[in-house]
Amino acid sequence: MDLNYSDEQLLLKESAERFLKDRYDFETRNRILASNDGFDTAIWTDMADLGWLALPFAEENGGLGGGAVEISLIMEAIGRALVVEPYLASVILAGSLVERLGTEKQKAEILGGLTAGTSRPALAHMERRSGFDLDNVSATVVKTADGYSLSGEKPLVLGGPFADVFLVSAKLGGEIRLFAVPADAAGLARETVKLVDGSRASDLMLNSVSVPASALLNGGDTLCEIEAAYDRANASLAFEAVGIMDALLDATVSYTKERVQFGKPLAAFQALQHRMAEMAVKCQEARASALLATLSVDASRSMRIRGVSGARAKIGKVSRSVAQEAIQLHGAMGFSGEMPIGAWFRRLYAIENTFGTTADHLKRYGEIIRDPAVLSGSLLRESA
């Protein structure tokens, strides 16, 4: 298997890195976070103009037909730049579900607006007691004469403060279904909460929210598609973490070359060289794991879980080690607001606890590995 990027993929990678370097430095990011909106509409519009928002969708749905590898290149650049715009929440998670489950009208309206940069959907599925059990949904829906009525709570909805439409999951007849709910629907309340990395999410409260029958996304097995969407998002988070880890390593090496102690640069001390070499090894381990996750998202369910959750478990461990080393080698400056080291550290911590913790993914990976079908190798034949 050729694991080298194609010429087109290299151009995409270079374009993404150049755009974010020119338009999204650390000071710009802090300004956006400190603003009332916590979001830059101009940056989002630029992402649409560059084709990023249309990248993963099929051409018949107004997209560019990109795959998981192309998305990983964008997410790696997003990680390095600490982008707070809801690319993961709106494009990779909610957008993919609309494409796979939505009606033609829903695709035209929601995906059409998303790829144009005028719409930002968000998935509201996880609940307070669900953990990473995707089937644990307490929100309810009742069939009415005109459509449906939804009630329940959805905490920490990523992209929620910026969303104009929510994909809300609820149980109908004992089965999970998704409904497209406008953000301004009567009975829907959202409260903005700030996360550990400074970004924002929303707590949603739905009190008998009425939606028409056309709000139902009913194009397939909803729970299976939700699980697959979260796996695509987790593979993307893995590459976001890789971008952050590489940035931490680069910043640490540069700092130790400049910082002089006892008459010579810190980088001249062999003990510190060994520590940075260990950081570099862990960055490569993370990249290999993230690539496996990316190449697994379109495989069979068993192979997908093995690749994605295995990567998240691995990266959760090594990313924390790299971040802690970077903080220590920078000394007290690592946590100063003038340097991005602390922000990268906090973002890695947020990633480690998004869409399943390291422990959740380790458990999920272990359950698949213990499956006799996996041990016998039949899953390899299944995905061939």
Walk me through the structure:
This protein has 13 helices and 10 strands. A hairpin with a 2-residue loop joins strand 9 and strand 10 (264-265). 46% of the residues are buried. The model is unreliable at 378-384 (pLDDT under 50). It has 384 residues and is of the alpha+beta class. The strands form 3 sheets. Strands 1-4-5-8 form a 4-stranded mixed β-sheet. It has a 4-stranded antiparallel β-sheet with strand order 2-3-7-6, with no helix packed on it. The protein has a two-stranded antiparallel sheet with strand order 9-10. It folds into 3 domains: 7-119, Butyryl-Coa Dehydrogenase, subunit A, domain 1, CATH 1.10.540; 122-217, Butyryl-CoA Dehydrogenase, subunit A, domain 2 (Beta Barrel), CATH 2.40.110.10; 222-383, Butyryl-CoA Dehydrogenase, subunit A, domain 3 (Up-down Bundle). Helix 4 (68-81) packs across helix 7 (222-258). Helices cover 53% and strands 16% of the residues.
